[in-house]
Amino acid sequence: MAKTGVFDSDPTVMAKATELKKELQRLVRLIVDDEDYRTEMIDQAKETLSALKELKMKKRSLSLKLRETLPCPEEFKCPLSKELMRDPVVLASGQTFDRPYIQRWLKAGNRTCPRTQQVLSHTILTPNYLIREMISQWCKCQGIELPNPVQYVNEEVTEADRDHFLSLLEKMSATLAEQREAAKELRLLTKRIPSFRALFGESLDAIPKLLSPLSESKSKSGIHPNLQEDVITTLLNLSIHDSNKKLVAETPMVIPLLMEALRSGTIETRSNAAAALFTLSALDSNKELIGKSGALKPLIDLLDEGHTLAMKDVASALFNLCIFHENKARAVRDGAVRVILKKIADGVHVDELLAILAILSTNQRAVEEMGDLGAVSCLLRIIRESTCERNKENCIAILHTICLNDRTKWKAMKEEENSYGTISKLAQDGTARAKRKANGILERLKRAVNITHTA
Fold first, then answer.
1. Where are the alpha helices (DSSP H) in 281-421?
2. Could you tell me the fold of the domain covering 158-319?
3. How many Å apart are CA 271 and CA 261, to the nearest integer?
4. pLDDT tens-digit readout, 319-366
5. Could you say which DSSP state residue 89 is in?
6. Second label for 280, Cα 20 to 30 Å away, from 47, 295, 397, 407?
7. How far is the C-alpha of 356 from the C-alpha of 328, rounded, in Å?
8. How do the domains of the chain map onto residue ranges?
9. Superfamily of domain 335-455
10. Which residues are bridge partners to 384 per DSSP?
11. CB-based burial of residue 71 (10 Å sphere; 0-12 exposed, 13-18 middle, 19+ buried)?
């Protein structure tokens, strides 16, 4: 049986941590949902966070002390530090070291492997996920916590690294085997080392070279699925780098290839293509460019298919793109309202999709479609049943817009109020915005009743 961790065996400490987390949740919810919150709540939240941090630090301190006293398997120790590795990486020689120690060795000007004395062909460090997982499992069995590896974001790129990068790009125009090998390594490098993302911005032909296997394969027998996945994921990694967003989006073949990946790739490829569009759409100019390109349609189609792995990325991309006014009309034209309402009715990613629907509700055609597709009953049900204040707020805001647009919907609102008092409850207990919208509906319902009585 696995040993129990120090804090796991102390119910008093565990109860204290749980209590602090609940209090923090309560304070944050009050601050977020109430526009008139007291400033003292922020101070209380800070104090609660400090207490939670102190508990965590004590846990980590005890865990480290245990780790120092327990015998550690030799294969888990770094050859340089002789300590348990936190972030094992493989050097060009094939030897594994803990990242901070081998980095220190390389930054001192050494270009040989400290264990084998072999001259290194490059200084790129590749994560050793197998050893990392084995160390993690060993720590769990010992009941100790392995601290997260330190993230090194300012690694310098040497001339040898730059030459290696260029050689990988050249391989993207070689045989399929070489393309796959190079694409896989570029995917890994751009994920792990931010400075490699920046290298793509130094040359105008770097991105076209990366994409050349995908653009050329269209006229041949098709795209190898693993190659497509690695290239599209590398594009995603590049897009994370702020300086690359404009360059990536404006490279002519990028958005068409992302659209193609949305339609025909593996589900991992399609999900990463959606994530790339989401990341690129952080720039307003890119929102417009992506919208004009027709990328909303394949995103909506992928949302309609409902793959669990892709839903979150697709919803995020659609939300970001629909902030841009012209893209709302494009999304509505491409069937977004029908698909979103269907998913919400099925209980799929309700939070994210309601937020998109709220954005689209400023579009006249979208509001008309919501009314025609039975959105009113669906949204009222969510207000009754949901525990999420933000969802209730979005629902009542959308309902307010629908009812202003279509007077025939007031009957359903009145019946809801008579049966459940849904709107009155929200007017009393909802967020500040939800209260305003709910009260607006109630006022109109009263006027409608008075008009009926007068008639």
1. 284-293, 296-305, 308-322, 325-333, 336-345, 350-360, 364-372, 375-385, 389-405, 410-420
2. Leucine-rich Repeat Variant (1.25.10)
3. 9
4. 999 999 999 999 999 999 999 999 999 999 999 999 999 999 999 999
5. E
6. 397
7. 10
8. 11-69, 75-142, 158-319, 335-455
9. Leucine-rich Repeat Variant (1.25.10.10)
10. none
11. exposed
Provide the whole-model pTM: 0.68
Separation of alpha carbons 22 and 17, rounded Å? 9
Cβ atoms 294, 331 nearer than 8 A: no
Q: How do residues 6-39 score in pLDDT, each as one tens digit?
A: 334 344 555 666 777 777 777 777 777 666 666 6
The CATH number for 75-142, chosen from 3.30.40.10, 3.40.50.12780, 3.40.50.150, 3.40.50.720, is 3.30.40.10
Quote the crossing angle between the two packed helices 375-385 and 410-420, to the nearest 10°.
20
CB 25 within 8 A of CB 41: no
Residue 182 contacts by C-beta under 8 Å, 6 or more apart in sequence? 168, 169, 171, 172, 174
The half-sphere exposure of 195 on its side-chain side, counting CA atoms within 13 A, is 13
Examine domains 158-319 and 335-455 and report if their fold is the same: yes
Rounded to whole angstroms, the Cα distance separating 251 from 441 reads 49
Closest CA to 198 of 239, 228, 168: 239
